[in-house]
Amino acid sequence: MSDTREIVARLAALPDAELVTVLRAAVEGRSALWAVRAALDELAGAAHAGSDPDVSPATPDASAHDSGAGAVASGQVGGGFPVPAVPVQPTGMPTLPETGGYSPSGVPTFESVRDKVEQRFGTAQGMGELDRQTPAGRSADEQFAAREKAARERLDQIRKSLRGKSAD
Known about the structure:
Distance between the termini: 116 Å
Strand content: under 5%
Radius of gyration: 40 Å
Structural class: mainly alpha
Mean pLDDT: 76
Low-confidence stretches: 66-73
Number of strands: 0
Order of helices and strands: HHHHHH
Largest sheet: none
């Protein structure tokens, strides 16, 4: 029975309810297949609810109750599929991977925030270096150096004048 084709053929020959039972047993305990297990559980519940004919009796024809021309039979109560359950990840299962720097609930991760801050800081440093290489940036640096030199010279003059007055 190691031949894959033979296994697939035998599975295909099973009725739906038995196939769901076999698949549920096959994915039991496999944490990576929790969503498949949830879907199979849902299918097993829907098949079980639909197998009992006495749960929802057939609605009688509308003509038996109403003789109005516009009356339409509503069909069977509860004849459709139940609302599918939202698959909830069982406890103890690994969490879903973070994508794009956000957790599954939409919160940014610490690593993504740190990367953004580092990127902005690097961009700001690079812009400063580029600014100093332009003529306008060089002239601003030259103006700053000239003002600093003038300020030092003026401070030296003030110090000399104070020393001269204290000597008198």
